[in-house]
């Protein structure tokens, strides 16, 4: 059985993962109406699906441990972006916030001596390492490209094959 404090903290993470899914869905929708960003569009649709899976994994864990996972209401995410560069900056910013939240959960689980939750959260810790690396690298690539249209074309074409620096790993 999980403590009330752990249940509340995990439910906050459920909200964060749901917000992530919505934010990335909005990013995908924005990218889809931009000419020539089919790869970026698909990348963010996949990111949205992945974040939803993260949310469901948390919900199931809370319920399996005797808690109650609450399905949260969601605020409206940002739906338009002034540029592709700004979209990816928001992506990185969001992943850093998720990492901070996961780290807070890990700390709480150790403070509460809830080693089952601590063990469960290690998957999220590792996932966030990959997510941050992906977001940073994609931002770095866009910085290198600048206003080069051919570079942007290649970026869009290759983004679906890119996962945290390992181009052999697809989602």
UniProtKB/TrEMBL annotation:
Keywords: Cytoplasm, Iron, Iron storage, Metal-binding, Oxidoreductase
Tagged with keyword Cytoplasm: yes
InterPro entries, sorted: Ferritin, Ferritin-like, Ferritin-like_diiron, Ferritin-like_SF, Ferritin_DPS_dom, Ferritin_prok
Sequence ranges assigned to domain Ferritin-like diiron in this UniProt record: 1-146
Catalyzed chemical reaction(s): 4 Fe(2+) + O2 + 6 H2O = 4 iron(III) oxide-hydroxide + 12 H(+)
Compartments, record wording: Cytoplasm
Enzyme Commission identifier(s): 1.16.3.2
Family, similarity comment: Belongs to the ferritin family. Prokaryotic subfamily.
Record's protein name: Ferritin
Organism: Terrimonas rubra
């Amino acid at each position: 059985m999980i403590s009330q404090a752990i249940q509340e903290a995990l439910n906050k993470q459920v909200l964060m993962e749901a917000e992530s899914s919505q934010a990335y869905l909005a990013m995908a929708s924005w990218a889809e109406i931009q000419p020539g960003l089919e790869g970026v569009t698909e990348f963010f649709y996949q990111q949205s699906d992945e974040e939803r899976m993260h949310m469901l994994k948390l919900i199931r864990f809370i319920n399996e441990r005797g808690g109650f996972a609450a399905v949260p209401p969601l605020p409206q995410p940002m739906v338009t972006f002034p540029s592709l560069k700004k979209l990816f900056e928001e992506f990185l910013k969001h992943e850093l916030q998720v990492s901070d939240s996961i780290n807070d959960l890990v700390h709480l689980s150790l403070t509460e001596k809830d080693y089952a939750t601590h063990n469960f959260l290690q998957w999220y810790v590792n996932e966030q390492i990959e997510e941050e690396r992906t977001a940073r690298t994609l931002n770095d690539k866009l910085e290198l490209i600048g206003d080069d249209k051919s570079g942007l074309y290649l970026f869009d074409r290759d983004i679906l094959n890119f996962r945290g620096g390992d181009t052999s790993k697809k989602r």
